[in-house]
Amino acid sequence: DSLKDIKEIGLGSHFTAEISGRIEANFNDVLESFKQLNVSLDDLMNWVQQSDQLPFAIPDLPSFPIQTDSITKKKNTDEPRPPLPTYIPDFLPSFPPNISVKQNSSKAIKKTEVVPKKK
């Protein structure tokens, strides 16, 4: 079963990476897993060329490009958008109005009372 073999390769490469003191496996760890399972790269290439097309894990993938109504694509139709400088991409949202920035920034600044040090 190819799914079982893939799982064994993943577990073996993960184990090899952990023994080497790393969190993520690299290509050398995968090669070591192949050695542990007695699989050569030539055997793997022959299997890939001779096997039928393997199904993808998710059988019903949507066609690309996906049409969505994402938040970044929605335009605020109530207020016209001021022209942006050339260095700001069009897909970024508009800046908030200056009034809301001034109101929120005054709330963020707290006045603290300075207490003199006792000697």
Number of strands: 0
> Structural class, please?
mainly alpha
Instruction: Give the terminus-to-terminus CA distance.
Output: 79 Å
Strand content of the residues, in percent?
Answer: under 5%
Give the integer mean of the pLDDT values: 76
Low-confidence stretches: none
Number of helices: 4
Strand/helix succession: HHHH
Q: Describe the main β-sheet briefly.
A: none
What does the radius of gyration come to? 29 Å
Helix content: 40-55%
The oligomerization state is single chain
* Structural shape: flat
How would you summarize the topology of this molecule?
Layout: H1 2-19, H2 27-36, H3 41-50, H4 98-108
Helix pairs in contact: 1-2
Structure overview:
With 119 residues, this protein is mostly helical. The chain has helices at residues 2-19, 27-36, 41-50, 98-108. The longest helix has 18 residues, at 2-19. It is flat, with a radius of gyration of 29 Å.
Concise summary:
The protein has 119 residues and is mostly helical.
Question: What brief labels describe this structure?
Answer:
119 residues
